Amino acid sequence: MRIQVNGRSVDVIAATLQNLLQELGYENQKVATALNMEFIRDKDRAKTRLSEGDMVEIVTPRQGG
Amino acid sequence: MTSQAPLCLYGSQFQSRLLLGTARYPSPAVLADSIRASGCEIVTVSLRREAGGGRAGESFWRFIRDLGVKVLPNTAGCLTAKEAITTAQMAREVFATNWIKLEVIGDEDTLQPDVFALVDAARTLSREGFEVLPYTTDDLVVADKLLDVGCQVLMPWAAPIGSGRGVNNLYALRALRARFPQTPLIIDAGLGAPSHAAAVMELGYDGVLLNTAVARAGDPSAMARAFSLGIEAGRAAFFAKIITPRDMAEPSTPALGRPFDRLA
Question: What is the C-alpha to C-alpha distance for residues B15 and B7, in angstroms, rounded to an integer?
Answer without folding.
Answer: 6
